[in-house]
Amino acid sequence: MADMKQLARLIKELEDQLVVCMRCGMCQAVCPLYAETGREADVARGKLALLEGLVQEMFKDPKGVNERLMRCLLCGSCSANCPSGVKVLDIFIRARAILTGYMGLHPLKKAVFRGMLARPQFFDRLMEWASRLQGIFVKPVDDLLGASCGRLLTPLGERHIKALAAPPFHMRVKPGSTSPRAAGLRVAFFVGCLIDKVFPNVGEAVMRTMEHHGVGVFLPEDFACCGIPALSSGDAAAFDKLVHYNLQRFAAEPFDFLITACATCTSTIKKLWPLMAWKLSLEAQEQVSAIAAKTMDVSQFLVDKVGVRQADTKSGDQKVLLTYHDPCHLKKSLGVASQPRTLLQANSRYRFKEMIEADWCCGMGGSFNLQHYGISASIGKRKRDNIVQSECETVATSCPACMLQMTDMLSQAGDRVQVKHAIEIYAESLP
Ligand code: SF4
Ligand code: SF4
């Protein structure tokens, strides 16, 4: 059970924000969940109405309220299109923390978030062992997309997944700090779990790009998760522990910007670390504000701070048709959409083509995909159809979670389309 004072404060903040919603229903048109289910309870307006009586409902039917609240991708499409500026994601995150504080955390989630994720070195060792043993449970199924599917008796269902990388990024690249050269800037690199354990090639592309541009890089030892899996399940305690851990790691060296190649990590550090920082010491709150202000997506850093520009190409030079999917956490949460496109067009080997609905959610939604795979896959299929309709051979994005979802959808459909990160495409163009 959470501290009652903390719960009361969260409820007060929640109520202050809830009154801003004028029930116009404009969030219906942009909610990917509502587009699939047509249920008012699934759209932001329906959930906000439910939360208005949260304190009463919490005592009557906490499980029911929690289940309805967890049916959300946290994509932020509603917030980004709300004429009243309702901070829907802040409200949902606070409400989940309130409910979990009141009901307690499910034992399985407790084991995962507090027993594993919030103990980064142990989590790393565990994942290293899992990568050695995964062949018992999964088998390769798609060479082009590098996807695997479950063998008999695995809980993966029909999913096509990316296997754990061996070795992970933290065993490929030495931690430490390099000095700024031509660019006169030093960045701290926040790697994130998925890039470390599933897409180390994306992390390597970041390192190669920084080296090419003469940007100094600080890579701390034993880096950890940004905390979003725990917080989106309402586990504020594990989230706080991870924020503390990261603050200590990134306080070790000075840097100009903190970069990530994961849209979800970027928006968590910039938006959710400050949102939940009120329980921390004043010193820690100041650290959180400072680090949030310096945090940016790697494409934003390269375009806005280093000056990367589109390649000057004659038509006909470019051979591979390429499109881009906007991760919700980058475009809708942070307003970053032009920079990744500039980065992609800096590689003259590719010809860029917009797909329709490039910023429609891919349906991943982190734990939403685990709990509601059927709906997640239906939303993902719409994304897959748009990619295929673009006739592109490669789809790029800026979030490893979106890469997982698009790989799953394209691989299951047997499509011959590669999924890459924008920084990989850019790094391919470097000498
Ligand atoms: S959340 Fe915004 S868009 Fe949705 S009903 Fe409320 S005011 Fe309208
Ligand atoms: S965050 Fe996304 S899925 Fe959740 S209510 Fe808003 S638009 Fe719908």
- β-strand percent reads 5-15%
Unique ligands: iron/sulfur cluster
Assign the CATH topology of the domain at 309-428. Rossmann fold
Average per-residue pLDDT, rounded, comes to 92
CATH architecture of the domain at 309-428: 3-Layer(aba) Sandwich
Give the helices and strands, then pairings.
Blueprint: H1 4-18, H2 32-37, H3 44-52, H4 54-60, H5 62-70, H6 77-80, H7 88-103, H8 107-117, H9 120-133, E1 138-142, E2 147-150, E3 160-162, H10 169-172, E4 176-177, E5 186-189, H11 193-197, H12 200-212, E6 216-219, H13 228-232, H14 236-250, E7 257-260, H15 263-275, H16 282-294, E8 295-297, H17 298-306, E9 320-324, H18 328-334, H19 338-344, E10 350-352, H20 367-371, H21 373-389, E11 394-397, H22 400-413, E12 418-421, H23 422-428
Parallel strand pairs: 5-6, 5-7, 7-8, 9-10, 9-11, 11-12
Antiparallel strand pairs: 1-2, 2-3, 4-6
Helix pairs in contact: 1-7, 5-7, 12-23, 15-16, 15-18, 17-19, 19-23, 21-22
This protein binds iron/sulfur cluster (SF4) (2 copies).
Summarize the structure.
With 431 residues, the protein is of the alpha/beta class. It contains 23 helices and twelve strands. The chain has helices spanning 4-18, 32-37, 44-52, 54-60, 62-70, 77-80, 88-103, 107-117, 120-133, 169-172, 193-197, 200-212, 228-232, 236-250, 263-275, 282-294, 298-306, 328-334, 338-344, 367-371, 373-389, 400-413, 422-428; strands at 138-142, 147-150, 160-162, 176-177, 186-189, 216-219, 257-260, 295-297, 320-324, 350-352, 394-397, 418-421.
Give your account of this protein's structure.
With 431 residues, the protein is α/β, with parallel strands linked by helices. Among the domains are: 4-104, Fumarate Reductase Iron-sulfur Protein, Chain B, domain 2 (Orthogonal Bundle), CATH 1.10.1060.10; 309-428, 3-Layer(aba) Sandwich (Rossmann fold). The protein contains 23 helices and twelve strands. The protein has helices at 4-18, 32-37, 44-52, 54-60, 62-70, 77-80, 88-103, 107-117, 120-133, 169-172, 193-197, 200-212, 228-232, 236-250, 263-275, 282-294, 298-306, 328-334, 338-344, 367-371, 373-389, 400-413, 422-428, and strands spanning 138-142, 147-150, 160-162, 176-177, 186-189, 216-219, 257-260, 295-297, 320-324, 350-352, 394-397, 418-421. The strands form three sheets. Strands 4-6-5-7-8 form a five-stranded mixed sheet, sandwiched between helices. A hairpin with a 4-residue loop joins strand 1 and strand 2 (147-150). Helix 1 runs antiparallel to helix 7, helix 15 packs antiparallel against helix 16 (282-294) and helix 17 (298-306) packs across helix 19. It is globular, with a radius of gyration of 21 Å. Residues 31-33, 43-44, 72-78, 88 line the site of one iron/sulfur cluster (SF4). Residues 21-27, 44-45, 48, 78, 82, 84, 86, 88 line the site of one iron/sulfur cluster.
